[in-house]
Design brief:
This protein is an all-alpha fold and about 150 residues long. Helix content is about 80%, strand content about 0%. Helix 2 runs antiparallel to helix 4 and helix 4 packs antiparallel against helix 5. The radius of gyration is 20 Å and the shape is elongated. The mean pLDDT is about 90.
Length: about 150
């Protein structure tokens, strides 16, 4: 008969197996978020006049001129996802996209459907997860490679 102690040891050994999926989950989250934000940036540059009109009339970004806000958002949505997928300056990219997402949510909260609001909260949660859990799971990231090279 198997003892309780043996069963507990086997359980605790097996309970650590999902940790090996961390790098896959990290990369999947980075790729998903990068796709969302990069597509949004591509949409903005496809019709710049429409983008400027949206930032002037709909988004109402606080404290910024609409043209400046449009440029900043577009550059962030096209540049930060590339860094995020590569894992280069990953925390900077995640923080930048988190701020962009928060400003977008605040700026046109009243225009969003409940599903849209939920989506922004979901993206924000994933971005915060990348900020907090970065070093544990980011095995497949340029930052991890660089950190190892700089420590050697």
């Amino acid at each position: 008969m198997i003892s309780l102690s043996t069963l507990l040891k086997q359980y605790y050994k097996a309970s650590h197996l999902p940790e090996y999926l961390g790098p896959i989950v990290d990369l999947t989250i980075r790729m998903y978020l990068a796709t969302v934000f990069f597509k949004s940036g591509l949409t903005k540059i496809q019709n710049w006049d429409s983008t400027l009109s949206l930032f002037s009339d709909v988004y109402q970004v606080p404290l910024l001129d609409p043209t400046v806000a449009a440029w900043m958002a577009t550059c962030a949505e096209l540049g930060l996802p590339v860094l995020l997928v590569a894992g280069l300056l990953g925390r900077f990219a995640a923080a930048g996209l988190f701020i962009l997402n928060a400003v977008a949510l605040i700026s046109y909260y009243s225009e969003l459907s409940p599903a849209g609001i939920h989506q922004h909260w979901y993206w924000g949660t994933l971005l915060i997860t990348l900020l907090v859990m970065r070093s544990r799971c980011a095995t497949w990231a340029v930052d991890t490679w660089l950190a190892k090279r700089l420590q050697a």
